Amino acid sequence: MPRVAGVNIPDDKKVDISLTYIFGIGNSVAHEILNKAGVDHTLRAKELSKEELSKIRQIIEDEYKVEGELKRERRENLERLKRIGSYRGDRHKKSLPSRGQRTKTNSRTRRGNVRRTAGSGRKGAPQPK
Fold first, then answer.
1. Cα separation of 48 and 36, whole Å?
2. Angstrom distance (rounded) from CA 18 to CA 2
3. Does residue 18 register a pLDDT over 80?
4. Domains of the chain
């Protein structure tokens, strides 16, 4: 398994698909990288020569933020929003949707599967003796 950006990419898949296993690289970016490196898109990852692999590694290292560096930057951006007290930061703190979606009915994924309906917290009826 070739190792690129700290990730083992699968041998048996085509190179452009294998590169998408790296966090921060999707289909379009993978095609860009392969075009810059001059590598054929139809090759399998195990068929890459050492030179081609080193070109791909170098391009990713120099031009793209991937894996840990990208995750750290995203986390810092969220922390900044929370720290300055912006509306988006407050929504993130409260684990609510931050991009204007309605929350009266939807947003079960974001809030958790919490049912807030009339009577859901009511005590049971008293039992006759």
1. 15
2. 10
3. yes
4. 3-64 (1.10.8.50), 68-110 (4.10.910)
What predicted TM-score, i.e. pTM, was given to this entire model?
A: 0.71
Of 16, 5, 59, 63, the closest CA to residue 37 belongs to 59
What is the 8-class DSSP label of residue 47? G
Helices (H) and strands (E) in the chain, counts: 6, 2
The residues, any chain, with a CB within 8 Å of residue 6's CB and separated by 6 or more, are: 67, 68
**DSSP one-letter string for 19-45:** HTTSTT--HHHHHHHHHHHT--TTSBG
| DSSP class per residue in 82-106 | HHHT-HHHHHHHTT--SSS---SS-
Asked whether 81 and 88 are in contact (CB, 8 A), the reply is yes
First to last CA, the chain: 72
Amino acid identity for residue 116 in this structure:
R
Split at pLDDT 50, 70, 90, the class of 117 is low
